[in-house]
Input
Amino acid sequence: MVDFQMAKDYHIDDLIQIMELLRAPGGCPWDRAQTHQSIRANMLEEAYEAADAIDSMDMDNLKEELGDVLLQVVFHARMAQEAGAFTFDDVVDGICKKLVYRHPHVFGTASAGDPEGALSAWDAQKRAEKGQRTTADAMDSVARALPALTRAAKLQGKAAKAGFDWRDISPAMDKLSEELEEFQAAVREDSNVEEELGDLLFAAVKVGRFAGVDGETALQKACEKFIRRFRAVERLAEGPLDGLDVPALEALWRRAKEEA
Output
């Protein structure tokens, strides 16, 4: 049994101590065996679960999921401290300094009268802080671990701020049609299919930006719609789908679309 005082309510210092005890000799074998790499996926999973709670407006679940995200931060900070890299206090110090530096309209003499102005000030401070001399430098800093549609939108947004963009949606629609034709040709020729599909998706994100639609959100909603309709297909089929031919499956899908 470790030396730990149970309490009715806990605070951040308690969480840090609990993680230290879990990682210490005599602690939890699983926690002691983990590395930054081994729990990398956990960080992403917990963030997505928190996002799900936000989307569903479930405050009780959000409270729990934010705790899980915080645990990941404390876990990584503890491993870093053991390696002599940094501590949890260093993490807190760093984010506080970043918030102060990137809000000159709050903590300095700059001004920002609306959310767009505040975001511009943030971006300008960020580029100065990171020594990003060009827009390409700023693009290169966009996390590669982001979902691809989200990353594409961020890259396109940075290009647009630099003036590299069309003025309306029409050329973007034309580009989407062009990329579709090139993808179709690639499929026919069985050449560069992956590259052309990537170009097609990138062009679709561009159209979405002009239409005021986030590609990642749109695709997530399409996934949910597909689940609803597939569930209806299974119900309407009243039996295994693998015994039906394509026309029968298409007929079921049309009926499912009418329902959902």
Notes: The mean pLDDT is 93. DSSP finds 13 helices and no strands in the chain. The radius of gyration is 25 Å. Residues 12-100 form a domain with the Helix Hairpins fold (CATH 1.10.287.1080).
